[in-house]
């Protein structure tokens, strides 16, 4: 069942992971006459790193991002992308250090249109991918503090607890998400999977059926096939 839950998780590939730098390049700092020049240089290095990352050239991307940080050491967007690339390269400690910096310098408002709660959600997702569940849980909870009506943090938390064998915690987070949106197939499937793990088979079947209907409604055919296979195990066609 764990593998089937993972099948329904969002998979991020290196070429799709470029988020914008966190500052407007027209900003001015009256206390630093070189600020504008440094920001322009930081933008060039960031763009260079982004192009390398999109092509799968992780080491070159890191080098360019490091040069951007030298020009502006407080750019959370650069740290975020650096952490993602480090993670893709299998350098876990470096990735975590970069994500911690991204959190510290997270913009008060939004990252080029991305609200701060979603910024934290992104970092939480990648902490989870690195197996750093403690940091993932902490920042996902911060995301919920900023936006308690968001479903994604509850789903991510539920997935972490499911993977850790803490099925009751997973159920609690899924229920909170369903209170916000009762028709999310991924949450319903995770809820059913968690209920199955603690022996609540009848409730699990009910939620698997709901997940199947949600997937069919949204034309998510591959996910629907996964749920059908699970229901078949219970003798449900």
Word description of this protein:
With 237 residues, this protein is mainly α. It has 2 domains: 10-147, Alpha Horseshoe (Serine Threonine Protein Phosphatase 5, Tetratricopeptide repeat); 151-237, Alpha Horseshoe (Serine Threonine Protein Phosphatase 5, Tetratricopeptide repeat). Helices cover 69% and strands 2% of the residues. It contains 12 helices and 2 strands. It has a two-stranded antiparallel sheet. α8 packs parallel to α10. It starts with a helix and ends with a helix.
Descriptive key words:
single chain; 237 residues; mainly alpha; Serine Threonine Protein Phosphatase 5, Tetratricopeptide repeat; 2 domains; two-stranded antiparallel sheet; 12 helices; elongated
| Beta strand count | 2
- Uncertain runs with pLDDT below 50, 5 residues or more? 1-18, 24-28
**Whole-number average pLDDT?**
85
Our estimate of the beta-strand percent is under 5%
* Lateral arrangement of strands in the main beta sheet: 1-2
N-to-C span:
18 Å
Major sheet description: 2 strands, antiparallel
CATH topology of the largest domain: Serine Threonine Protein Phosphatase 5, Tetratricopeptide repeat
Alpha plus pi helix count: 12
Which SSEs are present, and which pair or pack?
Elements: H1 2-7, H2 35-54, H3 58-71, H4 76-88, H5 92-104, E1 110-111, E2 114-115, H6 116-129, H7 133-146, H8 152-163, H9 167-180, H10 185-197, H11 201-217, H12 221-233
Antiparallel strand pairs: 1-2
